[in-house]
Structures are given as C-alpha cells and as structure tokens.
Amino acid sequence: MKRLRAAVVYVTLVCITAACASSRMSSSEVTKPYALALRALYDTIAHMDSVLFDAFNNRDLDKQKKVFATDLEFYHDHGGLTNYNQLIENTRRLFDQNNGLRRTLIPGSLEVYPIKDYGAIEIGMHRYCHSENGKDDCGTFKFVHIWQKRVDGWKLTRVISYDH
C-alpha cells in the first residue's frame, strides 16, 4: 500500500512538473521578442514619427496637420476619443501654455508591422516633459499609431495613447 501511495505521489509530481514546464514554454511563445519584418517600412515609419514629433517639439501645428489624416481618431485612456478638429484645437491650447512641452521616443521601443493593402502599425513608448514650477515634469507612456499609405503620402489615421 505504501509503495502504491509513493508511486501515485511520484507520478503526480512528474505530471505537475511537466505541466508547469509546458505552460512556461507556451507563455514565452506568446511574448516572442520583436523581429524587424521589413527594414524599408521600419525606416519609413520611423521617419514619419520624427517628422510628426519634430513638428510637435517645434510648435509647428501646420506641419503636424499635414501628417494627420482628416478622418483621424485619437483614443486616449483618460481623455477618450478625439477627432481631427478636436486634436488640432487641443494641440493649439497645449502650445499656447508655452511650458516647454516636448516629446522623445524611448530608444529601442519602436516596433513596426505591415498592414496588408493599407499601411503600417507603429508601436512604441515615448516620454513627454514640460516645465512646472521651474522643474521638469516627465512621464513615459505607450502608444500605437496606425499609418495609411495614400496617394499624397503617409497619413496617421488612428492613435491609441495609453498607460498614463
């Protein structure tokens, strides 16, 4: 009887160990590391990101407007949904505060994936800083941008800003 009980315990431990090992393998497969799919697409979207945020950092709203699609949808985890006109007005108000607001892309965070017959997905993290009471106030946030390749060039059509 003792041998049977010991055998059952042993088999149970082997099964639990095997189950844990296989679940570890499957979770690592789900979170596979980013692999650059298409260098040319990555370079193009990285360039478009820099065009957009160079304009932002230099308070050039007219240049920013050229990057955004007029059917833009901007989703913010705290602010909700904003359309093109609302985003432009909100950005104008931000610039009017003249508090040194600036954005930097977190090095190594940019990922780009193709969207068949449409454009690209850009995923990354960025840091925003502004001056408040004479000190820099900064935060690091996540974003997803959906870019569409149109006849008149690349346009940003959807933005998801989260983890604020």
TrEMBL record:
Pfam families: DUF4440. Keywords: Signal. It comes from the Bacteria. Residues 46-156 form the DUF4440 domain. Residues 1-21 form the signal peptide. Gene3D superfamilies: 3.10.450.50. InterPro entries: DUF4440, NTF2-like_dom_sf. This is DUF4440 domain-containing protein. It comes from Cnuella takakiae.
